[in-house]
Amino acid sequence: xxxxxxxxxxxxxxxxxxxxxxxxxxxxxxxxxxxxxxxxxxxxxxxxxxxxxxxxxxxxxxxxxxxxxxxxxxxxxxxxxxxxxxxxxxxxxxxxxxxxxxxx
Length: 104
Hints:
Shape: globular
Number of strands: 10
Helix content: under 10%
Structural class: mainly beta
Order of helices and strands: EEEEEEEEEE
Strand content: 15-25%
Low-confidence stretches: none
Strand order of the largest sheet: 1-2-3-4-6-8
Largest sheet: 6 strands, parallel
């Protein structure tokens, strides 16, 4: 399923992917069961599977490998290896209501 200009644009044999947003999962060709929500979400993924990216420019970068089960949440959050979660971009240093109560 794809909603947005260029979403899942190059998908060839990947199946059960969901892309919502302009260029979301645009370069995916063979990856399966990925979810990308946001402008340019998971735009770098080509063959990784079972990944999730939520947020504008949230991404899962394969770096020449096969990344699986990775999650990126927040603007420009990037994950580069399997079985990892990234909350926010490099500027996010902790989690808490009014200030970081726990370091990431």
